[in-house]
């Protein structure tokens, strides 16, 4: 299952769950859905069920084998807090995360209610970042659920941004904004992106502008008002070790250029503009 990732703000993916179900308009052009079907068509055994939820318990220990510290996106091909993911499996994943403090784990969900509900029965080691996706004002409530989760870093993935959004950023450390990409990409209005950036600046929250989006992820570039915005949260103590004390503002994002990988999953993801957005799911 994929190791190196081409997602701008992470280094690797850990997909011990694949498959999901659309839950809100941000899912309409789900990257994981499209890629899962492509991999199924290519005969990749892990994706034999297409986009149906599938557990890969044999991959739970994968991060233990990665000796070098990595930022790991947990289940980029699913949503960890999908109702059909057993709580016991989630607990075992958290044990792996707690026992591999050299890594930083990034979890992203649209199931903010379940995440909050089960959060009390999970350990929250400082190397686990917890995020929710928000695509427009209707789903801004997910930030409120996130606030109740005792993660060291709480972040919002405002991607794909498909409408204006006013956020309550209390208790939030990091916000990522991105436009949609792919054949059916919905355009992001510049005023929506600027508004989120300005809300972050007013609240002292780190802001990462990922991309404008368009037909391909790079079609519109990464400049917002003439510059890149590559801020990372600075409050997590383990980042000091990971980045040699350079944690915080204006860091160069890891993995901006797709790292070489020879597995079929990345070959499919890297294959030209065929309607796939290189967008983290959930
Ligand atoms: S993986 Fe994420 S974007 Fe895709 S269907 Fe599930 S929640 Fe929606």
Please give a structural write-up.
The protein has 282 residues and is α/β, with parallel strands linked by helices. It has one domain (12-278). The protein has eight helices and nine strands. It has helices at residues 31-41, 62-65, 87-98, 112-119, 141-147, 190-203, 238-242, 264-270; strands spanning 12-14, 17-18, 54-55, 71-74, 104-109, 128-133, 153-158, 174-178, 206-211. A seven-stranded parallel beta sheet has the order 1-4-5-6-7-8-9. Strands 2-3 form a two-stranded antiparallel ribbon. α3 links the parallel β4 and β5 (104-109). α4 runs parallel beside α5 (141-147). The longest helix is centred in the C-terminal third of the chain and has 14 residues, at 190-203. The protein starts with 11 loop residues before the first strand and ends in a 12-residue tail after the last helix. It binds iron/sulfur cluster. Residues 20, 22-23, 26-27, 30, 32-33, 78-79, 110, 281-282 line the site of iron/sulfur cluster (SF4). Iron/sulfur cluster is lined by residues 20, 22-23, 26-27, 30, 32-33, 78-79, 110, 281-282.
| Number of distinct beta strands | 9
**In one word, what is the shape?**
globular
Task: Work out the count of structural domains.
Answer: 1
Task: Report the major sheet.
Answer: 7 strands, parallel
Helix-strand pattern: EEHEHEHEHEHEEHEHH
Query: Percentage of helical residues?
Result: 10-25%
Please give the count of helices: 8
How are the strands of the largest sheet arranged? 1-4-5-6-7-8-9
User: Helix/strand/pairing class, anyone?
Assistant: alpha/beta
Radius of gyration: 17 Å
Low-confidence residue ranges: 240-264, 269-278
Q: What average pLDDT do the residues reach?
A: 86
Provide the list of bound ligands, each named once.
iron/sulfur cluster
Strand content: 5-15%
């Amino acid at each position: 299952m994929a190791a190196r990732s081409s997602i701008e703000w992470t280094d690797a993916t850990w997909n011990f769950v694949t498959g999901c179900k659309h839950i809100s308009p941000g899912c309409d052009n789900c990257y994981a859905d499209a890629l899962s079907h492509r991999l199924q068509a290519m005969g990749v055994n892990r994706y034999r069920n297409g986009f149906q939820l599938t557990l890969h318990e044999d991959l739970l220990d994968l991060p233990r084998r990665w000796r070098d510290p990595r930022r790991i996106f947990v289940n980029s091909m699913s949503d960890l807090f999908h109702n059909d993911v057993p709580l016991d499996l989630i607990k075992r994943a958290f044990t792996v995360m707690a026992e591999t403090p050299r890594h930083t784990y990034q979890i992203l969900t649209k199931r903010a209610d379940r995440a909050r509900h089960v959060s009390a029965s999970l350990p929250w080691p400082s190397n686990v970042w917890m995020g929710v996706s928000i695509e427009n004002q209707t789903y801004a409530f997910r930030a409120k659920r996130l606030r109740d989760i005792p993660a060291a870093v709480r972040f919002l993935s405002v991607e794909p941004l498909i409408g204006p959004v006013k956020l309550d950023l209390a208790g939030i450390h990091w916000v990522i904004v991105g436009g949609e990409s792919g054949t059916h990409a919905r355009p992001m209005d510049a005023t929506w992106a600027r508004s989120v950036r300005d809300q972050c600046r007013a609240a002292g929250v780190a802001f990462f502008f990922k991309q404008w989006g368009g037909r391909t992820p790079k079609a519109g570039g990464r400049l917002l008002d003439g510059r890149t915005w590559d801020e990372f949260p600075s409050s997590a103590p383990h980042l000091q070790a990971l980045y040699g004390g350079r944690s915080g503002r204006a860091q160069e994002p890891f993995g901006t250029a797709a790292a070489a990988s020879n597995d079929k999953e990345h070959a499919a993801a890297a294959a030209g503009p065929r309607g796939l957005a290189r967008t983290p799911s959930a």
